[in-house]
Specification:
556 residues, alpha/beta, ABC transporter transmembrane region fold, 12 strands, elongated, binds adenosine-5'-triphosphate, cell membrane, ATP hydrolysis activity, ABC1_TM_sf
């Protein structure tokens, strides 16, 4: 920082020294020979030195700003990764991405701008001081021309800002349209709607063309007008300085200096006019990044009790939960799941099955009541260690870009090839080879294009065998897989379920039949609870669900 300040002062002094020395030499023109050579040598030396100092100053600034942005991006990315799932309900991935990259860069450009402006302002003060020292009246004349230029720059800044924000808005619209059409491309293709999608895009693209042209026209006016105003101001100084020189108040060298100083003042002054709004934008960007870093976690803990192993007994007492204030999913929810019990959760859509699973997995926090695991308040347990003992298999497990082996090894940090092979062994080698034709070294694409739902489930189950969780939460896919793959998955599941507490949001009859207990969820409460045959005999909600949904899965 000190080095940077010294370079700012040094390069400003050098830049200001050039017109000062030249003006002095002009006044000594009659004194001797070789003046032109000495003058030229001085100008070259000063230019080289000033270039060197400016280079060092800018390199130092880049190093400083780069360091700050690097740390800010690390902290923002770290904060985004630490956020609970609930955070991503309100903040889309795109929004978080623009906080971590776009906003941190916005902040960096303001830092660079500020450092440049500080050095330029220092030069302005230096040159202004010399002009006033030469002649106060001339200094006042130059000073009087500055507000005119400043006012023009401010007015243009407003115009430029309006044009820029219109361009930003329309670009956001273009991006959103492209994003949406690409997301739904398979649907568009299957309905033969490509031309309609193109027409939608063309409409916003025409809008963006019009806005761009308007912005170009506005910018085309700004610079020539500012140059004209600068020319007028120079004319005033030429006239007045000339008069003072004729009157003997100024030497020709001082007159030259005043004109040079004026030329050097324009740029910082016009830049200062646009500085404030850019500075505010940068601060707003920084605020957004800090809001991400400082925002509270949705899952609140009040203890860090160690968790090494769990028996897996789960109990909810008077649990209250809603995703948003005033919309409760659970009012006064009670439930007890014994250790190592397999519970199938069924019910109509919106009944609260996934919500229950998310609360047990600590993806969300509840607002009232108690959630006990092995008789201990879940909020008193070390969150990371607790989550490490709970394995969640979502309906559509995510596949990362990398080899199949990498994707399985994801289940346990540091797992090697032998561990992956062992996990496959536990699933059942025949089961695996029948459903997974690819080799462990084959590369999968992010999102899992080219990998079926059943295969993704098998990858996720292999990850679970590596992880060895004490509580398994599984959301079965609704999409039916072929009977052979279903049998493979069921075989893998029965191995995974043994000796663990399992909560499975069940869509397959085979899973329901195998469960120790079935919970029928309805409007945020347990409407029925019991064994398969018992619930069928009861003739209630489960019997209804069975008749309308599960019965068709019975083998003929
Ligand atoms: N992220 C969310 N934000 C706000 N409300 C939500 C969210 N997720 C679920 N809900 C609401 O909570 C209620 C319970 O939903 P939940 O997903 O638990 O039901 P479900 O029984 O699992 O349904 P499905 O079988 O369709 O998955 C529903 O009214 C749903 O609209």
């Amino acid at each position: 920082m000190l080095g940077s300040a010294a370079l700012v002062v040094g390069s400003a002094l050098l830049t200001a020294a050039v017109p000062v020395v030249i003006s002095r030499m002009i006044d000594q023109v009659g004194d001797g020979t070789g003046l032109g050579v000495r003058l030229s040598l001085f100008v070259v030396a000063a230019a080289v030195l000033a270039w060197g100092m400016n280079w060092a100053r800018q390199a130092l600034a880049a190093w400083l700003v780069g360091g700050v942005v690097y740390r800010l991006q690390c902290e923002a990315a770290d904060a985004a990764l630490a956020k609970d799932v609930a955070f991503y309900d309100d903040n889309s991935v795109g929004k978080v991405l623009s906080r971590v990259t776009g906003d941190t860069e916005g902040f960096s450009s303001v830092m660079t701008l500020t450092l440049n402006l500080i050095s330029q302002m220092f030069l302005v003060l230096l040159l202004g001081g010399v002009v006033f020292w030469i002649d106060v009246d001339l200094g006042l004349i130059i000073l009087a021309t500055l507000p005119l230029l400043l006012a023009a720059a401010l007015a243009f800044r407003r115009l430029a800002r309006m044009a820029a924000s219109a361009t930003r808005r329309v670009m956001a619209k273009v991006n959103a349209t492209v994003h949406e059409s690409m997301l739904g491309i398979s649907v568009a293709k299957s309905f033969g709607r490509e031309r309609a999608v193109y027409r939608d895009f063309d409409e916003v693209n025409r809008l963006s063309y019009a806005v761009y042209v308007r912005q170009g026209l506005i910018y085309a006016v700004i610079l020539p007008v500012l140059t004209l105003l600068a020319g007028l101001a120079t004319a005033v100084v030429v006239y007045q300085g000339g008069r003072f020189a004729v009157l003997g108040r100024l030497s020709p060298g001082e007159w030259y200096f005043a004109l040079q100083a004026l030329g050097m003042l324009w740029q910082p002054v016009t830049q200062a006019a646009s500085f404030w709004s850019l500075f505010q934008q940068g601060l707003a960007a920084a605020e957004r990044v800090f809001a991400l870093i400082d925002s509270d976690h949705a899952v609140v803990q009040h203890g860090n009790e160690p968790v090494t192993r769990l028996d897996g007994e789960i109990e909810a007492r008077g649990l209250r939960f809603g995703y948003a204030a005033g919309t409760a999913v659970f009012h006064d929810f009670d439930l007890r799941i014994a250790a190592r019990e397999t519970v199938a959760v069924v019910g109509h859509t919106g009944g609260g099955k996934s919500t229950l699973a998310k609360l047990i997995a600590r993806a969300y926090d509840f607002q009232g009541g108690e959630l006990l695991v092995d008789g201990r308040d879940v909020r008193s347990l070390d969150l990371g260690a607790y989550r490490g003992r709970v394995g969640v298999v979502p309906q559509h497990p995510f596949v990362f870009a990398g080899t199949l082996a990498d994707n399985i090894a994801y289940g346990r940090p540091g797992a090697g090839h032998a561990d992956v092979e062992r996990a496959i062994e536990r699933i059942g080698p025949q089961v695996w080879s029948r459903s997974m034709p690819m080799s462990l070294h084959d590369t999968l694409s992010a999102g899992g294009q080219g990998v079926s739902v059943g295969q993704r489930q098998l990858i996720a189950l292999a990850r679970m065998f590596l992880r060895e969780p004490d509580i398994v939460i599984l959301d079965e896919p609704t999409a039916s897989v072929d009977p052979l793959t279903e049998r493979d998955i069921q075989n893998a599941l029965s191995r995974l379920f043994t000796g663990r507490t399992v909560l499975v949001i069940a869509h397959r009859l085979s899973t329901i039949r195998r469960a120790d207990r079935i919970l029928v969820m309805h409007e945020g409460r347990v409407a029925e609870d019991g064994g398969f045959d018992e619930l069928l005999r009861r003739g209630g909600r489960f019997a209804g669900l069975y008749a309308t949904y599960y019965a068709h899965q019975e083998p003929a």
